[in-house]
Design a protein that fits this description.
Length: 88
Amino acid sequence: MEQSCRKECGAPKTNFDTAQQAVCVRSCVGEAANAPECYEELYASDPYEQGEIDVRGPSFKGCLANILRQRRVAEKKQQMPQDDIREF
């Protein structure tokens, strides 16, 4: 997912050449994962700036991982057979 966003944003495979690339990639990944709230929570109010070390990157990835994990759990719960409810 991140690699396709890096291509889409014109960013190299490692690091970022510009702050604009970093913002583009983070936003793209959040949208691709259908989890824009991760980008919004960590970057929207305090945008990444040129020269900044992205210390929020691990939190962003953790946010995505949590959301994807929650979705997998919810999907598994939906796929579980329901107990037969019988009236006596």
